[in-house]
Amino acid sequence: MTRRRLLVGAAVLAVVVIAVVGALFLRSVRGPLDAANGYFGDLRARDYAGAYDRLCRPTREAVARDAFVATMRPRLAGVFRIDDFTANPRVNVDGDRAEVDLSVTYAGAGSADVTLPVAKEDGDWKPCPDPTAFR
Length: 135
Known about the structure:
The structure is a single chain. A hairpin with a 2-residue loop joins strand 1 (82-94) and strand 2. A 4-stranded antiparallel sheet has the order 1-2-3-4, covered by helices on one side. It is built from 4 helices and 4 strands, in the order H-H-H-H-E-E-E-E. The protein is 50% helix and 29% strand. By secondary structure, it is of the alpha+beta class. The protein has one domain (31-134): Nuclear Transport Factor 2, Chain: A (Roll), CATH 3.10.450.100. Helix 1 crosses helix 2 and helix 2 (48-54) packs across helix 4. It has helices spanning 2-44, 48-54, 57-62, 65-75; strands at 82-94, 97-106, 110-121, 124-127.
């Protein structure tokens, strides 16, 4: 009977440890995933000003809102209009920086895998793409 109790106790402990580790993992990637989903959701909806507002401070300081909108509007028109996007399970978090892998489906140009850098600012995760991409 004692051996059975030990086995049951070990099994319960293993389940608790797995649940805690899983919760901590989800907590660590939830912010970056939400930032990426919000940003690409705005791009898909053609809300380029809304997408701009989500950007990290360094990208916003390097690129004016009008320049961002003027760049994104023609870039994501026609065959490159975003039909759908899916965040892949790979999210690399390193302190206040992370990278989120996404699969983006375009209206007439197939799909592409995209890695979106994000940064934590004032407790919130923000998309932080390279500002030179908008010039």
